[in-house]
């Protein structure tokens, strides 16, 4: 009976009982016939037959019990037997369980990240009905007027909601305390079906023009900041310096619709007027920061919603067209379509940034697990050889082969289970570490990594597949042993038998797979190293960054223009500060300012070149240690009202002046077909990085801060000090407080910003380096195991050879040659695999191609050396075989 | 009717295998009759233990069972011995002879 049918039997007791009843009924009928034949009356015969049989129901139950219990009993026996075997070989068990634990744990860890970032549904009511409204194809951001029009005109969805990412400063002046939050529409919580934990959530009446300042707290934030105090309702919280009344706390588990960016504080969208009075953000027709989600009506399909939204598009666009745009741009705007896409997993920026990286890692850890499986399969095979005699005896006394295979598979399953248990522990520990690598927009990503059913299911599935994968071949093989041969004696295996061949092919595969991982690791680690040692064109070490905000000061425009100068002068008076400057943005900060530019004496036509700008004070070049190649830097005479000047970089000179010195030439910025006054180029700057370290150098121009016009009400202050940059932080804080206590401050260092921008390359380099090393280690253990096993197996042969006069070197060469062939085969196969497999990671590489021959050769060489090292120890043992000892065994 | 003993626990398996080996395909009732006849009525099989034993042996792979019709056109479950069953029979027969020989010697010489 097949295992499958037996499993069914456990559940399908009806069928078994029916079979048993039929059989018993038949028996009784036959018995009655016989008794009647011998002269008994029918009734008496019936009674007698039943008496003989005993209680028929008991028999039926016994039959069934024999069937089901017999099987369960066999399973428990197998488990007991397997446990005994594992306990008896603690070394083998430890190596196998740890290899599997690392392999399975790595898979679980990466998968739990994939799950949290990509797969998990929002913790809202019926998340499968949530869709995202899109504009003109795939864009997901809207303006507030667009949102108003969509909400009023759409008939496709059962409710729509708007969301905009926000960061709130909770401090009243001084050092900034940022918390992530969201501006949300009044229907946000109702449409999602998220109830309040305490107090109330927003209703549509909270989100109207001129609304009062109210806020809902996220559950986790409420626990962290207020210790879960229910009396928080009615209290006020300061958001960007404005008092907001807390009206409630959202349900536990809900952290907003933006995965990876916890919303700790929610305010209605209408609060924009409170945060930015007079800016009229709610009517701004080209400020794009709103995402729109909606809920499909019950039974409605996505296609119907898309069609209905498309039909409303024209009306929505007409109601919200940016009337200040040029006519052709307005016409283009009116053509925008509306559509929708499934959004049960919410919105995520992290998802887009890390999707490919996470899937790449998933493949990498999958390969590591394969290599680990191969190792355990080898260990099991070696063990099976040791148990050959036992197996042969059992086969000889009539054990079924299926029974034996089951026995051996039970052992594999147990190993896999133990490995999985260890793996879950390992995954819990490591996935938190990996999340620390994921960064987005200057803050760490917060993810819900709790083990859910999907992750556990994945682990169980992986463990089961693993168990089958490494268990089946050895089990099948060892059950095919011929009893006669095995019982005749051990130690005289034939050279080149099929078991040996299988072991060798497994090692070849291992070497090949680990070469792929080592090559990938080499490429990624190399890229990261090149990135982190790149010359950015400035000196990051020693620079403190201070992002200042002074909107609370209500400075007049004239005062605001010279205010940065006042701040910088105050900074320079702090002991230990070498120089200080103010700028609109800082390098590698993520912020950028670019404009289309016309160079005066160049023919116009075609697309205008895009140039990246920054507004800086005089000492900016000195503070960042940027190098001036020609011309002059800015000085105190470059003020608002004096002749407009700029310093450009060499890349700009190369692209637009054919590499000639551009000092003395002019350029103009262009917006909406109007040109600025000519700006004279007064200096030439060595190239430096602007947005990212791995960018192609951008054409860049610096202009004096006062001539640049201010963005908002704040500047970035850069401070170079002689010691550690953070050492002057208290003095800077105090100096700023003396200037005005309401100035907000946010500190970081240029080095930290750069480290931040390297987060993803670092994640990939660290992970691939770790897993590549692990794969290499496992493959080397596998090779060592195979060679050691071969040497043991061929001890007699070696003894004979030595007795017949073969020199030690020849024996050494014999074994080393075999190892060499295995390694060479693995390397060739691996090189072919690597050639095909590393292409997808090309986008993560910097300064090196995906099929870089140097990395390939280096990796192969390293693998060959390590592998041959591992093979030499058994070879040396073989050469030292004492012929007398081995021959005596014969 | 002479004195009849129920089959000793542990020998049922041996008897079933031996009977099926020599007589071929039989249903449960015929098995009890056959054992009774072969033992010249000295042994009789307890029905209540026969069927669970048949199931166990079927699971061990020693027997193969299938539904068929008797001469009286009744549905019956027929049992056959498998090669594994034959090996098992050989092993059990040997150990049985070994034990009975031992017991005989004890009775004779002790």
Looking at how many chains there are and whether they match, the oligomeric state comes to: heterodimer
Instruction: Please estimate the helix content of chain A.
Output: 40-55%
Main-sheet strand order of chain B equals 2-5-4
Structural class by sheet pairing and helices of chain B: alpha+beta
Q: State the share of residues found in helices of chain B, binned by percent.
A: 55-70%
Q: Which outline of chain A best applies?
A: globular
The global form of chain B is globular
**What is the distance, rounded to the nearest whole angstrom, between the alpha carbons of the first and last residues of chain B?**
34 Å
The largest inter-chain interface, given as chain pair and residues per side, is: A-B, 30 and 25 residues
On the 0 to 100 scale, the average pLDDT of chain A is 84
Average of pLDDT of chain B? 83
Compose a concise summary of this entry.
The complex is a heterodimer of chains A (890) and B (110). Chain A is α+β, with helices and mostly antiparallel strands and 890 residues long.
Question: How does this model look, in words?
Answer:
The complex is a heterodimer of chains A (890) and B (110). With 890 residues, chain A is α+β, with helices and mostly antiparallel strands. Chain A is built from 28 helices and 25 strands. Chain A is globular. In chain A, 43% of the residues are buried. In chain B, the strands form two sheets. Chain B has a three-stranded antiparallel beta sheet. Chain B has a two-stranded parallel ribbon with strand order 1-3. Chain B has four helices and five strands. With 110 residues, chain B is of the alpha+beta class. The chains are: A alpha+beta (890), B alpha+beta (110). The interface between A and B is medium-sized, with 30 and 25 residues.
């Amino acid at each position: 009976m097949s295992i499958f049918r037996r499993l069914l039997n456990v559940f399908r007791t009806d069928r078994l009982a029916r079979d048993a009843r039929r059989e018993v009924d038949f028996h009784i009928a036959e018995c009655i016939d016989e008794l009647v034949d011998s002269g008994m009356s029918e009734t008496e015969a019936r009674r007698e037959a039943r008496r003989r049989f005993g209680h028929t129901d008991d028999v039926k139950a016994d039959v069934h019990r024999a069937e089901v219990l017999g099987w369960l009993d066999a399973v428990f026996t197998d488990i007991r037997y397997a446990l005994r075997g594992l306990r008896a070989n603690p070394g083998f068990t430890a190596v196998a369980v740890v290899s599997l634990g690392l392999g399975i744990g790595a898979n679980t860890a990466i998968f739990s990240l994939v799950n949290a970032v990509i797969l998990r549904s929002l913790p809202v009511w019926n998340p499968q009905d949530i869709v995202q409204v899109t504009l003109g194809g795939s864009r997901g951001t809207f303006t507030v007027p667009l949102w108003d029009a969509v909400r009023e005109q759409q008939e496709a969805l059962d409710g729509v909601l708007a969301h905009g990412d926000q960061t709130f400063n909770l401090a009243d002046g001084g050092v900034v305390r940022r918390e992530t939050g969201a501006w949300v529409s009044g229907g946000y919580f109702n449409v999602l079906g998220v109830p309040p934990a305490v107090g109330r959530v927003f209703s549509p009446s909270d989100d109207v023009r001129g609304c009062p300042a109210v806020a809902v707290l996220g559950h986790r934030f409420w626990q962290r900041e207020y210790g879960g105090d229910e009396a928080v309702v009615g209290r006020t919280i300061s958001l960007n310096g404005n008092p907001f009344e807390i009206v409630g706390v959202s349900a536990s588990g809900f952290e907003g619709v933006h995965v990876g960016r916890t919303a700790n504080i929610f305010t209605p969208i209408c609060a924009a007027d409170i945060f930015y009075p007079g800016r009229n953000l709610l009517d701004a027709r080209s400020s794009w920061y709103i995402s729109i989600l909606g809920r499909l009506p019950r039974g409605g399909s996505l296609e119907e919603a898309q069609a209905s939204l498309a039909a409303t598009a024209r009306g929505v666009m007409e109601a919200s067209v940016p009337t200040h745009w040029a006519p052709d741009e307005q016409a283009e705007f009116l053509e925008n379509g509306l559509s929708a896409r499934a959004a049960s997993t919410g919105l995520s920026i992290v998802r887009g940034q890390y999707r490919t990286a996470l899937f790449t890692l998933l493949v990498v850890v999958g390969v590591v697990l394969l290599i680990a499986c191969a190792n355990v399969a080898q260990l099991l095979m070696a063990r099976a050889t040791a148990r050959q005699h036992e197996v042969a005896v059992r086969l000889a006394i009539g054990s079924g082969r299926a029974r034996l295979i089951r026995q051996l598979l039970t052992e594999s399953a147990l190993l896999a289970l133990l490995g999985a248990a260890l793996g879950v522990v390992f995954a819990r520990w490591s996935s938190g570490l990996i999340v620390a690598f994921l960064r987005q927009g200057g803050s760490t990503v917060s993810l819900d990594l709790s083990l859910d059913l999907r992750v556990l299911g994945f682990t169980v599935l992986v463990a089961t597949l693993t168990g089958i994968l490494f268990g089946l071949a050895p089990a099948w093989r060892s059950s095919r042993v011929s009893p006669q041969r095995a019982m005749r004696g051990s130690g005289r295996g034939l050279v080149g038998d099929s078991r040996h061949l299988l072991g060798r092919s497994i090692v070849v595969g291992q070497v090949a797979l680990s070469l792929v991982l080592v090559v990938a690791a080499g490429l990624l680690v190399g890229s990261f190293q090149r990135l982190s040692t790149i010359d950015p064109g400035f000196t990051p070490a020693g620079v403190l960054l201070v992002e200042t905000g002074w909107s609370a000061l209500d400075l007049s425009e004239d005062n605001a223009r010279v205010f940065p100068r006042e701040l910088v002068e105050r900074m320079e008076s702090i002991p230990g500060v070498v120089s200080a400057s103010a700028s609109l943005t800082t390098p590698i900060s993520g912020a950028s300012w670019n404009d289309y530019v016309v160079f005066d004496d160049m023919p116009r036509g075609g697309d205008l070149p895009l140039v990246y700008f920054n507004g800086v004070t005089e000492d900016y070049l000195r503070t960042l240690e940027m190098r001036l190649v020609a011309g002059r830097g800015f000085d105190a005479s470059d003020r608002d009202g004096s002749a407009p000047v700029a310093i450009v970089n060499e890349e700009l000179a190369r692209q637009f002046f054919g590499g000639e010195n551009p000092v003395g030439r002019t350029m103009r910025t262009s917006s909406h077909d109007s040109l600025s006054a000519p700006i004279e180029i007064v200096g030439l700057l060595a190239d430096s990085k602007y947005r990212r370290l791995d960018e192609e150098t951008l054409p860049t121009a610096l202009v004096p801060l006062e001539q640049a016009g201010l963005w908002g009400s704040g500047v970035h202050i850069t401070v170079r000090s002689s010691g550690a940059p953070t050492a002057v932080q208290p003095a800077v804080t105090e100096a700023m407080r003396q200037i005005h206590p309401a100035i907000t401050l946010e500190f970081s260092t240029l080095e930290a910003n750069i480290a931040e921008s390297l987060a993803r390359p670092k994640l990939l380099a660290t992970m691939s380096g770790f897993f590549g090393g692990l794969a290499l280690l496992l493959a080397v253990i596998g090779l060592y195991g195979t060679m050691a096993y071969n040497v043991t197996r061929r001890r007699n042969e070696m003894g004979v050879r030595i007795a017949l006069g073969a020199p030690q070197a020849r024996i050494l060469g014999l074994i080393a040659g075999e190892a060499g062939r295995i390694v060479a085969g693995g390397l060739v196969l691996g090189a072919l695999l690597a050639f095909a497999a590393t292409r997808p990671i090309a986008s993560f590489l910097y300064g090196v191609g995906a099929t870089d021959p140097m990395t390939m050769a280096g990796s192969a060489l390293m693998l060959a050396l390590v592998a041959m090292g591992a093979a030499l120890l058994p070879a040396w043992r073989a050469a030292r075989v004492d012929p007398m000892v081995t021959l005596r065994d014969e | 009717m002479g004195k009849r003993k129920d089959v000793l626990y542990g020998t049922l398996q041996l008897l079933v295998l031996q009977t099926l080996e020599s007589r071929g395909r039989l249903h449960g009732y015929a098995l009890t009759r056959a054992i009774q006849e072969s033992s010249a009525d000295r042994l009789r099989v307890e029905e209540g233990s026969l069927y669970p034993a048949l199931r166990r042996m079927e699971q061990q792979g020693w027997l193969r069972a299938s539904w068929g019709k008797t001469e009286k056109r009744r549905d019956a479950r027929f049992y056959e011995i498998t090669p594994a069953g034959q090996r098992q029979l050989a092993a059990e027969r040997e150990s049985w002879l070994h034990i009975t020989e031992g017991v005989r010697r004890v009775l004779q010489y002790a």
